[in-house]
Amino acid sequence: RQQCTRLEETNHSFEETECQIRRVMACDPELPAAHFLRFLNCLRHSERVGALDALHQYFDYAMIKARKDATTHDKKKVHDVAQYASILLAALHHAFGDESLSLKATEEAVRVSQESRDPASVAYALGWLYCNEMKLNAQDLLERCASRASEGHLRPLVAGANSALARHLLGTETSSATSAWTRLANATTDPPPSSTTNSLDRPTHTADVTSSDEAMELLSRQILVGAGIWQAFGLNALSGLSSLANMNVHDKHLSPHETTLAVRNLARVSLYGSVPEAFQLVEHDFSTASSCRYATALRLLMNLQESQKQSDNIYSTALVLHEWAVRRGDLEHAEFLTKLLHSYLHPRMPNYKAAYVETMLQHVLLLSRQEQWDRAKELAKKLCATCQEEGCGLRVQHAILLIQLALCQLESSSQNFIGALPPLFECLTMCETCAMDSVHATALSILAQVHLRMENTKQAIAVLKATLPSLHQHSHVWFVGEAYLTLAKCHLQQAKKENAKDAKKELARMLQSAVDSLNKSAHSFRECDDAARLREVYYLQAHTFNSLPDMKEQRNEASKRFVKVSRHLEKGRFSWQRGRLSDTSYLEQLASRSPVDS
């Protein structure tokens, strides 16, 4: 039995573990622990037939041993073995995607557990019932699961049920940040004794845990869910810091899937707002890195992949490279990466719906850059319908899709802007209802473009100046550049009116304000390597510098940059070499590429 326990804690291959199990069973072929270890080994490596056979053998020998060991004070062992059989069988079927069989086994587990009146087995059975019927009375099931687990002193299950409940509350229309955080706090603390006690400021304790490692695992998963809550409300910097703290403090207690989620979140957050100084805790020399955010995200993925020994991180890498390729104008490379991302989608993929929407959103970006506006708008509308079907669980993605749909409407026609209003108003309403302030600011910055086209420049400038602080702090760097570009166009439109009035002093002030906004816009677009937007910025800069005295040198420099970027975009692609995304040297070569305007 001790040998089996040691084997379970190791991370050998399927064949190595199987050889060790056979050696143990040669000494005691009826040892239940050996058969259970074989079940876990087969389950870990997706060996369905072997896992099912090992599970049945485990319960056969466990029942025999329980009957032999039973005494007048210990007859409960036989019932313990029987009531957990259905729970493990439900877990097995769920792991292999057999939802109907898993549901039947779960219902049997609930019936047996309630008959035995064992709080622990009832809690586990309710947990699996939630996994199989997530949309049916999910909150009630999770609350009952947490209550029963608390009665049975099962702290890991209490933590898991409350964490799942926090995630579930984020997907309900009536949820709030306080309700989600309160449930997450219950994962490692007991509820306050009265309603007057502060529900969030509670000491963390780890009662009813079997070891310090188990306590650290509970804390690491709590922080992981906390990162998701920050993200759900658009607070990307705090989400990234939570993931970073998890990677640096609890890295040994995260599962491979949890590590992948943390790494992917860090790469995503590096494209939003100001990159926190705390990111320097990641051991990497960024002194040689380019100013491009995508290069920073790619190097971050490479470094964490190496330090955490992550081998299956290709999907996250492809997401970063695809968006970068679209921004740069590497359309051939982007089409190749689109096919790669689609090939990674499968129903058993963790967070499949979110990954599907994210992948299709990348496709919308590519179609928009290729000016296939009808296809882009049609796909965006289908994705919005998918998000609505999933409820509030994908509300952030839904809001971003609505913003992208509005952008497609605005860019597909320079005259018609009415089509952009319905998705923008829907997005703004959703953000106000769900308290997504950063996404709300992004939608307002796009609404300013509508005001500009209506020649309501004062209203557009007021909206942009109100939203820019939030955009700088939380939004994607591309939207920061887009906001400054819109602001510059507003100043140029005002300057055109002042020029007609022959007010030279006011005209110079307007033109200088446009220059300042264009410089800031160019800085943001250089950070995301957007060739098409940089070309537009350099064009406006050249015209504006030409209207100002003593700006001929700046005008010539802007003109040269405009011509260079235009030539690259006329080719339809930038030069790139094919390679494997698992090859670190190839990724380093991509991360070290020169900016599009150099």
3D architecture notes:
- The protein has helices at about 1-10, 15-25, 30-45, 50-70, 75-95, 100-115, 120-130, 140-150, 155-170, 175-185, 210-230, 235-250, 255-270, 295-305, 315-330, 330-345, 350-370, 375-390, 395-410, 420-435, 435-455, 455-475, 475-500, 505-525, 530-545, 550-570, 585-590.
- It is mostly helical and about 600 residues long.
- Helix 17 runs parallel beside helix 19 (about 395-410) and helix 24 runs antiparallel to helix 25 (about 530-545).
- It has 27 helices and no strands.
- The termini are far apart.
Low-confidence region ranges: 280-289
Bin the helical content: over 70%
Tally of alpha and pi helices? 27
The total beta strand count reads 0
Largest β-sheet summary:
none
> In sequence order, what are the helices and strands, one letter per element?
HHHHHHHHHHHHHHHHHHHHHHHHHHH
Strand % is under 5%
**Outline type:** elongated
* N-end to C-end Cα span: 65 Å
Rg estimate, integer Å: 29 Å
List keywords for this structure.
73% helix, 0% strand, single chain, elongated, 598 residues, mainly alpha
Quick take:
The protein is mostly helical and 598 residues long. The protein has helices at residues 2-8, 14-27, 32-44, 48-69, 76-95, 99-116, 119-132, 138-151, 155-170, 177-185, 212-232, 236-249, 256-269, 293-307, 314-328, 331-343, 352-369, 373-389, 395-412, 421-434, 437-453, 457-474, 477-501, 504-527, 531-547, 552-571, 584-591. It is 73% helix and 0% strand.
